[in-house]
Specification:
2 helices; about 250 residues; Immunoglobulin-like; 18 strands; globular; mainly beta
Length: about 250
C-alpha cells in the first residue's frame, strides 16, 4: 500500500481549501420587489350591482349594497385586484414546482371570491358553489392558450369541480351566464413570482434570484403597464404603478 506523507496530506487539504474559495457559490433566491398601485385623478363613479334578476341573490345583499367588482378603489386611494407578475428576466431553462395546494374560487353571495387571483400552470383550481342557487362557470382565456370550459353547479350541494390550465395566460376570465355581474380574472404563470393587490393596494414578489426583471401590472379595466427593476442578492426594491382613467402606467 502506498504511503502518503504528512506533508503531501497537508498540501492536498490546502488545495481543497483554495478550490472551495474560488468555486462560485450558488446565489440564494432572496431578492424581493414590492410596490403599490395608486389611483390618481378623478375617480370613476362605481355603481352598485343590481341583484334583482335572482331573488336569492337579492336577499343575500338586502342589508348592504355591493359595488361593481371590476373597479375597486380602496380607502387609501389605491387600486385593488391588480395582477402583478414577472414578465421577463428569470433564468433561462429554470423550472418551478407546481404547488400541491389548490387555489380556490368560491361562488358565494352570487359573487366570485376572490375576484382576481394568480395560479401556476397545472395547479389545481377548485371551484365551489356555496349558494343555494344555480351558477354556471364559463372560463375562456384572452389569448386562447387554454381549452375553454363551461359547466353548471345547481346549488351548494354540488361537489367541488376542479380545473387546470396547461399554458401561461393572462387573463383567463370566468363568468356566470346566469348572473352576468359575476366575473373573475385568473392569471396563469409558469413560475410563482406573481401577486394581486388587495385592500391596501400593495403587492410583494419575493424569493427572486438577483437579476434584471420586467414587472408587468394588469387590470381588467385599466390595461397593462411595465417597469424594469434590477435587484441584487438579498436586496428589496420598490416598483410602484399609477392608475387613472387613461390606464395603468409605471410611476417612475
Amino acid at each position: 500500500m502506498a504511503h502518503i506523507s504528512s506533508h503531501t496530506s497537508h498540501l492536498f487539504a490546502a488545495a481543497l481549501f483554495m478550490a472551495a474559495l474560488v468555486t462560485p457559490a450558488v446565489a440564494a433566491d432572496t431578492a424581493s420587489i414590492t410596490g403599490k398601485v395608486t389611483f390618481i385623478g378623478e375617480k370613476p363613479k362605481i355603481e352598485n350591482i343590481r341583484f334583482s334578476a335572482d331573488p336569492y341573490c337579492e336577499k343575500m345583499h338586502a342589508d348592504k349594497p355591493v359595488p361593481r367588482q371590476d373597479v375597486i378603489i380602496n380607502a387609501n386611494d389605491t387600486l385593488g385586484n391588480v395582477i402583478v407578475h414577472v414578465k421577463e428576466g428569470l433564468p433561462a431553462g429554470r423550472t418551478y414546482p407546481t404547488p400541491a395546494e389548490p387555489a380556490v374560487v368560491n361562488q358565494h353571495g352570487c359573487l366570485y371570491t376572490p375576484h382576481a387571483l394568480g395560479v401556476m400552470v397545472n395547479q389545481t383550481v377548485q371551484i365551489r358553489n356555496s349558494d343555494a342557487t344555480m351558477h354556471n362557470i364559463n372560463g375562456r382565456g384572452s389569448q386562447k392558450q387554454n381549452k375553454p370550459f363551461n359547466f353548471s353547479m345547481v346549488n351548494e350541494k354540488v361537489p367541488t369541480r376542479e380545473v387546470k390550465f396547461d399554458k401561461a395566460e393572462l387573463p383567463v376570465r370566468l363568468k356566470c351566464d346566469v348572473h352576468p355581474w359575476m366575473v373573475a380574472q385568473i392569471g396563469v404563470f409558469a413560475h410563482p413570482f406573481f401577486s394581486v393587490t388587495g385592500e391596501d393596494g400593495t403587492f410583494k414578489i419575493s424569493g427572486l434570484p438577483a437579476g434584471k426583471y420586467t414587472i408587468e401590472a394588469w387590470h381588467e379595466q385599466y390595461g397593462r403597464a411595465e417597469m424594469e427593476v434590477t435587484v441584487g442578492e438579498g436586496e428589496a426594491k420598490t416598483a410602484d404603478f399609477n392608475a387613472a382613467r387613461t390606464g395603468l402606467k409605471a410611476s417612475q
